[in-house]
Design goal:
Vanillyl-alcohol Oxidase, Chain A, domain 3, FAD-binding domain-containing protein, 490 residues, 5-stranded antiparallel sheet, 7-stranded antiparallel sheet, Uridine Diphospho-n-acetylenolpyruvylglucosamine Reductase, domain 3, FAD, binds flavin-adenine dinucleotide
């Protein structure tokens, strides 16, 4: 096990490892911000304890993000509530975090100790305006709630691949089965209302004076302000009864991994048809014949064309569950509910090269074999990003930047039992090494919604210089970076 020879020192989670005096200072600042915000908004919107407080701190997808103890939780019902909270956070120099759907796998990016948590569970409205052909979404909505609210009009928001995912996805990019046809989810944003660190509220669009902020927010995750309203271009996808897509789940035995990875490399390299979409989830837990790999394939049409999916369909499979689906059906097909498990993601990105995919999978299996006692599952998840995803943008360039080639995001996903004590530093160090051994193919961006919190995702963006310039302009004192956990590099 080569990677164990160079162990990296103890892994820490952002500012969680505060020393006692730092923690005391943070607690004092947070208490001041909380009390002042409660003075403005009242006790129903600012809670220091109680059932709603407890439920919020537990309502995270990953076990590792549960159990933080914010000094208070603010439950805004309007942008002005967020402005009030942010003004006091800024004035008190308090730490803070923002939570929308709570599905971030990045440890610590959506919760806080000794700080203020802003949770959007009371801002969940979704509406469709036929005159502008846009869908307006409050930050507490999810993919499923938004889809259910508007499908009767024959339209959909473009989001992700699991109904429970929240609006945080839109700020990272947003990969969906409809991406090849409709683009990144963040590239279907028309307007964003954003509360800056000082509490100022601005509306950013592709063409107004905040166009640099508009671009930065799309890929900039939680670094550029708190979004209080998303206006999205509607996709005309039909109602829940319009079964315009065909496809579904195909399960392969573990013994098919090499054939599957070769087919995946060819698919990633050659795909030009925007009606086709796929995700390949390879089980890296072991290589026995009982291991199953899961792939979802979809095509906007009445069948899976052999010209696109033929190689996959010729690989012996354990089961195939294909059918006709509406966009609505597909939104609710993959379950992403909160389980008891701890989760850890790590990102890479590969061009369609057989050896790269096979080598990456072998390293993931090798890693998993070594840490089998600590893990209950390990996946190697491949999401193709054909060039059509960029061409479909309605919002202009995002901050990630088109690399000019078909590629796939690769997510190394570790699943732990619900006991943080089983995540020893040696495993964290080895996981970082696994990611270092699987760098992105030259020129490719990492995907921020699938990264490890230590990864330099922004530096991999084509539009990194513009991103840094926007950060310096809209947060000149570096308040966000100093006071909330999130991506590095600004
Ligand atoms: C089961 C599962 C399936 C997934 N499937 C997909 C997929 O198909 N496609 C895809 O692209 N990604 C997918 N992801 C990754 C997903 O995009 C990220 O987890 C996403 O950030 C989750 O958003 P959220 O609102 O649920 O989570 P949160 O944890 O609440 O938010 C995520 C981040 O955004 C910040 N944030 C949230 N709201 C705001 C706001 N209003 N203003 C400023 N910052 C804010 C938070 O502080 C946090 O850092 C999946 C994740 C999981 C766990």
């Amino acid at each position: 096990m080569l990677f164990l020879c160079s162990l990296i020192p103890l892994f820490t989670v952002g500012v969680a490892a505060q020393d006692a005096s730092t923690a005391a200072t943070a607690a004092t600042a947070a208490r001041a911000a909380c009390l002042a915000t409660r003075q403005d908004l009242g006790p129903t919107k600012v809670k220091f304890s109680g059932t709603q407080y407890d439920d919020t701190t537990e309502a995270y997808w990953s076990f590792f993000n549960r159990g933080d103890e914010p000094t208070c939780i603010v439950y805004p019902s309007s942008a002005s509530d967020v402005q009030a909270a942010m003004r006091h956070i800024f004035h008190s120099q308090s730490d803070y975090a923002v939570r929308a759907g709570g599905h971030s796998p990045m440890i610590g990016w959506n919760g806080i100790n000794n700080g203020v948590l802003i949770s959007f569970e009371d801002m969940t409205d979704v509406s469709y305006d036929a005159s502008s052909d846009t869908i307006t979404v409050q930050p507490g909505a999810t993919a499923g709630s938004a889809e259910a609210a508007v499908e009767s009009h024959g339209v959909s928001p473009v989001w992700g691949r699991a109904d429970v995912i929240g609006t945080g996805l839109l700020l990272g990019g947003g990969i969906s089965f409809q991406g090849p046809l409709y683009g990144w989810a963040s590239d279907r944003i028309k307007e964003l209302d954003v509360v800056l660190v000082t509490g100022e509220l601005v509306t950013a669009t592709a063409t107004n004076e905040y166009s640099d902020l508009f671009r930065a927010l799309r890929g900039g995750a939680n670094r550029f302000g708190i979004v209080t309203r998303y206006e999205l271009y509607a996709a005309h996808t039909g109602t829940r009864d319009d079964k315009l897509w065909y496809g579904g789940l195909i399960v392969y035995p573990g013994s098919s991994s090499t054939a599957l990875l070769k087919a995946t490399a060819h698919y990633v390299r050659d795909l030009t048809d925007p009606n086709a979409a796929a995700i390949m989830i390879l089980n890296a837990y072991d290589t026995t014949s009982t291991t199953a790999h899961a792939c979802y394939f979809f095509y906007k049409g009445t069948s899976l064309p052999a010209s696109v999916f033929g190689e996959f369909l010729s690989i012996p499979s354990t089961s195939q569950n294909f059918s006709s689906y509406s966009f609505y059906d597909i939104t609710f097909l993959i379950q992403g509910d909160n389980g008891p498990n701890g989760q850890q993601y790590g990102a890479s990105a590969f061009i369609g090269d057989e050896a790269t995919f096979i080598n990456g999978y072998a390293k993931a299996v090798n890693f998993t074999q070594h840490f089998k006692e600590q893990l209950i599952r390990s996946e190697y998840t491949i999401s193709p990003i054909p060039l059509s995803v960029w061409a479909a943008s309605l919002s202009g360039p995002n901050s990630i930047g088109n690399p000019g080639v078909n590629y796939a995001t690769v997510d190394f996903n570790l699943v732990f039992p619900d006991n943080e004590a089983t995540r020893p530093p040696v495993l964290n160090a080895a996981f970082k090494l696994l990611l270092a051994q699987n760098p992105p193919s030259p020129g490719l961006p990492l995907y921020i919604n699938e990264c490890h919190q230590s990864q330099e995702v922004f530096a991999s963006y084509r539009n990194y210089p513009a991103l840094k310039a926007a950060y310096a302009k809209y947060d000149p004192t570096g308040f966000n970076v100093a006071h909330t956990r999130g991506p590095k590099g600004l």
